[in-house]
Design brief:
It is built from six helices and 17 strands. The chain has two domains: 3-61 and 272-340, FAD/NAD(P)-binding domain (3-Layer(bba) Sandwich), CATH 3.50.50; 65-270. The protein is of the alpha/beta class and 344 residues long. It has helices at 3-17, 102-113, 137-143, 178-183, 206-231, 320-332; strands at 27-32, 39-43, 47-50, 53-55, 62-63, 77-80, 94-98, 118-121, 131-132, 135-136, 187-189, 192-196, 199-202, 254-256, 262-267, 271-272, 301-303.
């Protein structure tokens, strides 16, 4: 859905259920209390008291920037991807995009369409086709149960913070591919290790990261193919293009930003999360909530809307409703029926 449609749906949801949404309000702290209710919720306007508090702030509290970012020359414009608006808002010159998840690749794609010279520091994010065998890939992944994977399937706790694969909903939906970027003139680089003044230093992992993206896509479409075969669906076969242009690029260990004509760096490096507003020991060593499907050790304190809270889809509009219904059942005492929630 385009942004405007997402906003419209939220507006209709609030109106339909007459939700008392309070805008322009910042919550500064949640604390146990001896006053009315179990918890005091301190905002920049007032203090509220509640027996139940659900933290639904997501994982994107602060733009994530490397520690060496301030070392870069002040004559180079630096933006986080969340601050980027369009190519016209940038000064003339080449652009370095740091990151190859969804945001980084979508920005590179738009810069290319506007004839900007682009350098891209590539990470290990996977790649997914926008459409495959007649359906949007998101629909296939929902059908095959990809989004229903439980958190117990993760190889490590930190895996829940991995970047989303390269795919775009821009311009009606399109596939993104680093090899295609290389074919179109983008200078692909390994991940950024350090920077000082007008110089950056890079890891020699470009080829390794390209291989990871290729492997991710192959495993994903194999999963879909197996589902189609097992389900006996009459769906035409499809072979995705196998591009290799990125492998022809040389590994670069350092780059002179001045010599490359780079005047802007866009940090598509994700976000860090911060739940320090909850003044209780409910966070693990990564700062992620300690909980079981959103339920903490403190009665009445819950979390929802986080990736891999319970399933892979827990942080998506597609799946947050299931966890919300589960938490609601605990608060209201109404038994939770898993199959009661629509899968759309």
């Amino acid at each position: 859905m385009p942004r405007e449609e997402v906003i419209s749906r939220f507006d209709r949801y609030v109106e339909q259920y007459q939700l008392p949404v309070q805008f322009q309000t910042r919550v500064d702290a949640v604390e146990l209390t001896t006053e009315i209710g179990r918890y005091s919720v301190f905002t920049d306007h007032s203090v509220m008291y509640a027996n139940n508090v659900i933290i639904a702030t997501g994982l994107f509290q602060q733009p994530k920037m490397p520690a060496f970012q301030p070392n870069i020359s002040k004559d180079i414009l630096q933006l986080h991807s969340g601050q980027y608006r369009n190519p016209q808002s940038l000064p003339p010159g080449a652009v370095l995009v740091v990151g190859s998840g969804q945001s980084g690749c979508q920005i590179v794609d738009e810069l290319l369409e506007n004839d900007r010279k682009v350098y891209q520091s590539v990470g290990s994010a996977g790649r997914a086709p926008r459409r495959y065998r007649g359906k949007d890939v998101f629909e296939w992944l929902n059908l095959v149960g990809f989004f229903d994977q439980p958190v117990s399937k993760l190889p490590s706790p930190k895996a829940k913070f991995a970047a989303n694969p390269q795919v775009s909903g821009r311009s009606g939906g399109k596939a993104l591919n680093l090899h295609q970027f290389a074919h179109d003139g983008v200078v692909l680089l390994g991940h950024l290790k350090h920077a000082d003044n007008h110089y950056i230093w890079l890891a020699d992992d470009l080829k390794e990261n390209l291989e990871k993206a290729d492997k991710f896509e192959k495993e994903l479409v194999n999963m879909i193919d197996q589902y189609i075969e097992k389900s006996g669906l009459d769906v035409p076969a499809e072979k995705l293009p196998e591009l290799t242009d990125g492998f022809d690029l040389p590994e670069m260990n350092e780059l002179d930003l001045n010599a490359a004509g780079i005047t802007t760096i866009i940090w598509a490096s994700g976000y860090s999360f911060d739940f320090s507003l909850v003044h209780l020991p409910v966070l693990d060593g990564d700062g992620y909530p300690i909980q079981e499907r959103g339920v903490t050790a403190y009665p009445g304190l819950y979390f929802v809307g986080l990736p891999w809270l319970y399933k892979q889809k827990s942080g998506l509009l597609l799946g947050v409703g299931e966890d919300a219904e589960y938490i609601t059942s605990i608060i209201t005492g109404v038994p939770y029926v898993p199959d009661n929630f629509p899968n759309s």
